[in-house]
Write a structure and sequence with these properties.
Elements lengths: L1 E2 L5 E5 L3 E6 L6 E7 L7 H7 L34 E2 L2 E2 L9 E2 L7
Length: about 110
């Protein structure tokens, strides 16, 4: 199955583990990566649990816990991808534009 529109969430289940991603804004954000979740777990609720109130002198929107954290998306730590342009540093920013899978793989 190929689609130009991204699903809101992507869930991958193994025998005993689940990887649940939010694909908002084209940045895969980890909502859960660990013990297998029940089938009826609501991904939108997990996303809301990650929200936090604004604090003084902090970004209004925290950097997402992405699969590949990048400086261009606000991640303040060591980036998940390092590159340069002719020896000049730059802040990478990448977005997911398409998801492909075999039939029956995506929910």
């Amino acid at each position: 199955m190929t689609s130009n529109a991204l699903p809101e969430f992507l869930r991958l289940d193994g025998r005993s583990t689940t990887l649940l991603l939010s694909l908002a804004d084209g940045i895969p954000q980890v909502l859960h990566w660990g013990a297998k979740l029940a089938v009826d777990v609501d991904a939108a609720t997990l996303l809301r649990l990650l929200e936090r109130g604004a604090t003084h002198a902090s970004p209004t929107r925290p950097a997402p816990l992405a699969l590949t954290p990048l400086a261009g998306s606000g991640f303040p730590g060591r980036p998940g991808l390092a590159a340069h342009r002719g020896g000049q540093d730059w802040a990478q920013y990448a977005v997911l534009t398409r998801v492909e899978s075999s039939p029956g793989m995506l929910r």
